[in-house]
Design brief:
With 648 residues, the chain is of the alpha+beta class. It is built from 14 helices and 32 strands. The strands form nine sheets. An eight-stranded antiparallel sheet has the order 6-7-8-9-16-14-13-12. The protein has a four-stranded antiparallel sheet with strand order 1-2-3-4. Strands 5, 10, 11 and 15 form a four-stranded antiparallel sheet that branches.
Length: 648
């Protein structure tokens, strides 16, 4: 199946809607169009002036908007949750009258995102006039798209105009999908920003914050991040949880909303077709009319359940209300029971109808031996054991904090897991295997999965140092960590998971390096991610080539939530930030010397307040109260002690 070329597309997002077009604004087939709730609402949108398509170039003006400019005329585009608007403006910059005929053609095909990815879109359907400036397109299964045109045209979307010198004429087309429930758009939520001696950090953070804002969806009163545009504008367990964790400097609300949304859908029974199991957290959620290959609610993920517990624990430390945390403790207990219910390690086996691989490297060749063989059968991924260890320890802490029984059981379980991991996973070269098979064979490919073990507590200090060394020696490229070492027989820089670079994968390892005290190694990855951001106009894609040029991966989603969250996550690492609101403590221990020079972070959200923090080039810290005084961060009014390892 040929993959769609997305890298050069102009994308405007307001989840669950997204526009895709070429740099000239034209939508003429393939993946282009306007999507709402996993269905294409507009498949073809063509503008001609005097019978010819105008030459235009694009400028992105925000995550949800773009302008396409010609010599005199423009197209302005805006995404909105139920659709979007396209405004075409003709201008007369000459000294004499200008006559022109503006014509627009619009059509849809109602295709699902899955069908479009497979290259099987439906036949196009023209919008039919109703009354005044309203047109409609309706599918046989009940999908309906309304087109409102202002001003109404002379004929079928045609306007003949004469413009006096300096005069302008605009036509607005508003497309709205009307067969789905009204979608509440959460208000803009973050004031986080940074000013650094290295200005690339400023732009990366600003762009990432805008994209995360555009990828937010509401689930009742709760908010979560959709995974990415255009194929994943829905709830994905693993992606939403990691994006929320990485984005905690923006505040705790999204993390809290994510665990509530996922907890409400936690598995309660055994269903083979959906792979639901009691306690299991779902993999993805799709509208029933857009499900493709997988059921609308599908649970085939091996890591989201542990990440659910870790994310709730993070949210509690960052200031999630204690009563809201306590309400989710039954979900924590069910999740821990699911982890402990595996024989041996936390593992998966393909059912033959769901995903072949159920970790974050979920492509068919995502788990490889060093000799290039593809690992199959029952697989226990190394990073999943790290997540499970962290979930058990931090879940125990949550149970203790709220006076619930069972904490020591889970600490004992975690300690036993760590010892068994130590015996089963370590390869002769001094690094953990990417996975262990059901027969106990180590899948010995040198892969970036090991980076996710850092900071989980599973590794000893010596083991952590060994992993750090292998990451930098075998997997580092100038633009981040390769997913598979170049020495592996199956290495392919242009593959999806066998040598490419994923920004979120790199920043997770970077955070672990910083937490485990490997500051120099962490600093080198900060520089690599900033170099990559510059390469991609600071809107980091889902992935890119693992070669020394960071070659674009043509089908990469952009924006992708966990790639957008790299900017806020870098601030956590650079600040050496550790937040523990229940203990009344916020600690800064910056990477020093700073790899970005002196910098100041404004609008860092913790619980109910905001902080401004300045770090000089040597790593000395100055903390300033934000708009809300730091004394009111804690529910009982106690002041929050702030410490810095190298305070100025």
């Amino acid at each position: 199946m040929a993959q769609h070329q997305l890298h050069d597309r102009v994308t405007c997002v307001a989840a669950p809607a997204t526009w895709l077009s070429g740099p000239d604004g034209r939508m003429t087939g393939k993946a282009d169009g306007l999507y709402v709730e996993d269905r294409r609402a507009v498949a073809h949108l063509e503008v001609t002036i005097d019978g010819a398509a105008p030459a235009m170039t694009a400028q992105r003006t925000g995550a949800a908007s773009a302008v396409f400019a010609g010599v005199q005329d423009t197209r302005s585009r805006l995404a909105e949750p139920l659709g979007g608007t396209e405004t075409v403006t003709l201008s007369n910059d000459a000294g004499e009258p200008r006559s022109a005929v503006l014509a627009i053609t619009a059509a849809t095909d109602f295709a699902t995102t899955g069908a479009i990815r497979d290259g099987n879109p439906g036949s196009t359907v023209d919008f039919e006039p109703a009354d005044g400036g309203t047109w409609w397109a309706r599918s046989a299964d009940g999908m309906a798209v309304r087109l409102d045109v202002t001003p109404p045209p002379d004929g079928p979307l045609r306007w003949a105009v004469t413009l006096e010198p300096g005069e302008r004429f605009s036509v607005e087309l508003r497309f709205t999908r009307t067969d789905v429930a009204t979608i509440q758009r959460a208000k803009r939520f973050s004031t986080l920003r940074v000013a650094a001696a290295d200005p690339r950090l400023d732009v990366l953070v600003r762009t990432g914050v805008q994209d995360l804002d555009a990828l937010r969806r509401t689930d009742g009163a709760d908010v979560y991040y959709c995974a990415g545009s255009p194929w994943y504008l829905t709830l994905f367990g693993r992606d939403a949880l990691w994006s929320a964790r990485l984005g905690l400097p923006l505040g705790v609300d999204v993390a809290a909303g994510t665990v509530r949304a996922l907890g409400a859908r936690q598995g309660t029974a055994h269903h083979g077709d959906t792979e639901e199991e009691p306690g299991r957290i779902l993999h993805e959620l799709r509208p029933p009319d857009a499900a493709h290959r997988l059921p609308p609610v599908y649970y085939g993920t091996v890591d989201a359940t542990a990440l659910f517990v870790c994310t709730l624990a993070d949210a509690y430390r960052w200031g999630m209300r204690p009563d809201a945390v306590e309400a989710l403790l039954p979900n924590v207990e069910a999740a821990l029971e699911w982890l402990a219910g595996h024989e041996g390690f936390v593992a998966y086996r393909s059912t033959g109808t769901g995903l072949t691989n159920q970790g974050w490297k979920d492509s068919g060749d995502g788990v490889q031996f060093a000799d290039g063989r593809i690992a199959t059968g029952t697989l226990a991924l190394c990073e999943v054991q790290g997540y499970a260890y962290e979930a058990a320890v931090r879940g125990a802490d949550l149970l203790d904090a709220f006076g619930r029984a069972g904490g020591q059981r889970w600490r004992d379980w975690a300690a036993d897991l760590a010892e068994r991991f130590r015996a089963a996973f370590w390869c002769p070269g001094g690094y953990p295997a990417v996975a262990v098979t059901g027969d106990g064979e180590r899948v010995d490919g040198v892969a970036s999965n090991m980076g996710h073990l850092l900071g989980t507590g599973l590794l000893s200090a010596a083991e952590s140092a060994s992993v750090a060394g292998h990451l930098l020696a075998a997997l580092r490229s100038p633009f981040g960590l390769r997913t598979l070492a170049v020495t592996s027989a199956g290495y392919d820089a242009g593959s999806y998971h066998a040598g490419s670079v994923w920004p979120h994968d790199t920043v997770i390892a970077l955070l672990g390096l910083a937490r485990d005290g490997h500051r120099e190694e962490a600093a080198s990855l900060v520089g690599a991610l900033l170099a990559a951001a510059e390469r991609f106009d600071f809107r980091l894609p889902e992935l890119y080539g693992g070669d020394d040029d960071a070659t674009p991966y043509p089908a990469a989603c952009r924006p992708q939530a966990w790639a957008a969250a790299v900017g806020p996550a870098l601030l956590t690492a650079l600040l050496g930030l550790d937040v523990d609101v229940p203990a009344g403590r916020i600690t800064f221990d910056p990477i020093a010397p700073s790899p970005v020079g002196a910098f100041r972070v404004r609008g860092l959200k913790v619980a109910g307040g905001e902080l401004d923090v300045t770090v000089d080039a040597s790593g000395a810290v100055t903390v300033h109260n934000g708009p809300v005084d730091i004394r009111f961060l804690l529910a009982d009014g106690r002041p929050a002690p702030i410490s810095a390892a190298s305070a100025g």
